[in-house]
Amino acid sequence: MMADAYDVAVIGGGIVGLAHAWMAARRQLKVLLLERSPAACGASVRNFGMIWPVGQPAGELYNVALRSRELWLELGAQHVLDVKTCGSIHLAHATDELAVLEEFAALGQYQVQMLTAAETQRRSGLVNGDRLLGGLWSDTELRVDPRTTSARIAAWLRKTSQVDLHFNTHVVAADKGRVQTSDGRTWRAEKIIVCSGSDLQSLHPAVFATSGLKLCKLQMLRSTSQAQDATAPPHLASGLTLRHYNSFRGCSSLRSLQQRIAAEAPELDRYGIHVMASQFANGEVVLGDSHEYDTDISPFDRTEIDDLMLRECRKVFSLNDWTIRERWHGIYAKHPELPVFEATTAGGTEIFVGPGGAGMTMSFGLADRAWQQWT
Q: Which residue, 268, 274, 276, 335, could crosslink 244 as a Cys pair with Cβ 3.0–4.6 Å?
């Protein structure tokens, strides 16, 4: 059966696919979006809900993150989503952590300022004041609810744009301007974009085999509800996080911190643990996370990882109830060097996969940049 022809066909209904569908719709193009699941259920719904520009390296990628931020705020202004302008605080509970934060702030490349310990605690009641030395405030971070965001964007695109969405639709071939699904349907499109998330095998496996992409598994937790301390409480990140984000790699003082953690707690490096907290409007707090790659990934979650995360969370965060009501894991694709993997097949299909753990932060900006280049 031959369906209508489209300007653009997007394969994948997660945040990356939705970003491309939106960017195409903004250009008045007729768009088809196909997703094999009933709704987005991968990494796009299994994260903190953090839009986190401060984690991107200064220069082009930080600017892409800020462009993403503008687009998220646009969705908020149009009442598509509840987008909170919450900011973030990196906490320093050790002198080497404080040194990195002070060096980072002195670079003058980000919208940040140092806070005293007292100022840090005034901004968030979730901060553990024991041994707290100070914090780094950034005002660029946003919060959305990852569990509802993709579905709400999809519904909005269906209602307001030339975007046809088909969920529960498994694509078996997508190349040379032709998309086929397992139920025998076929569509034509001038441009096909594959945004397949962590699925690197179903479509164009030969391209992915040489892509350099790695799979990463993270474990996360959600605490029970507790009283909210502000209209939009800031995201919190511990000093361990300074080891994780590329934005801090230009700080010469980082090496000392890395060496201390490696000596004192090598188990944290083994599982890529760096703890963060995001508190939502109902008071619930999402905690995490960890990083296991490729052959280390198991379908079974490690209790040891959850215990380590909670151990470190208790050092830096203050919850009035540490009961954990939900535990889950997510898997995403990540390139060791690129912000996202892009390739064009011999048949003209665009592959756009692997923004890593920065999918919520970067997808809109990366898609916008790609469409500027394509058009």
A: 274
Residues in CB range of 214: below 8 A, 6 or more apart: 293, 294, 333, 334, 335, 336
Residue pair 11/349 in contact by the 8 Å Cβ criterion: no
* Concatenated DSSP letters of 133-173: -EEEEES--EE--HHHHHHHHHHHHHHHSSEEEE-S--EEE
Ordered domains of the chain (ranges, CATH) = 2-45+147-211+338-374 (3.50.50.60), 88-139+214-334 (3.30.9.10)
CA-nearest of 144, 145, 148, 143 to 39 is 148
Distances 151 to 14, 40, 43, 75, 316 between C-alpha atoms, Å:
9, 7, 14, 13, 34
Cα 109 to the chain's mean position, in Å?
22
Where does residue 182 rank: exposed (0-12), middle (13-18), buried (19+ CB within 10 A)?
exposed
Q: Rounded to whole angstroms, what are the CA distances from 357 to 198, 231, 370?
A: 12, 26, 19
Structure tokens at 359: 């999918």
| Residue 232 confidence (pLDDT) | 83
Give the pair of three-digit tokens for residue 121.
């605690």
The answer to pTM > 0.90 is yes
pLDDT in tens, 328-347: 999 999 999 999 999 999 99
Angular region, 176: left φ>0, alpha ψ -120 to 50, beta rest: left
- Contacts of residue 32, defined as CB under 8 A and 6 or more positions apart, other chains included, come to 6, 8, 9, 10, 163, 164, 166, 179, 187, 189
Q: Which residues of the chain have pLDDT under 70?
A: 1-3, 225-230
User: What is residue 132's predicted lDDT score, i.e. its pLDDT?
Assistant: 98
Q: Given this model, what pLDDT does residue 1 score?
A: 41
Give the per-residue pLDDT at 230: 59
- Is residue 49 within 8 Å of 149, Cβ to Cβ? yes
Cβ atoms of 59 and 356 within 8 Å: the answer is no
Give CA angle at 294 (292, 297), nearest 5°: 55
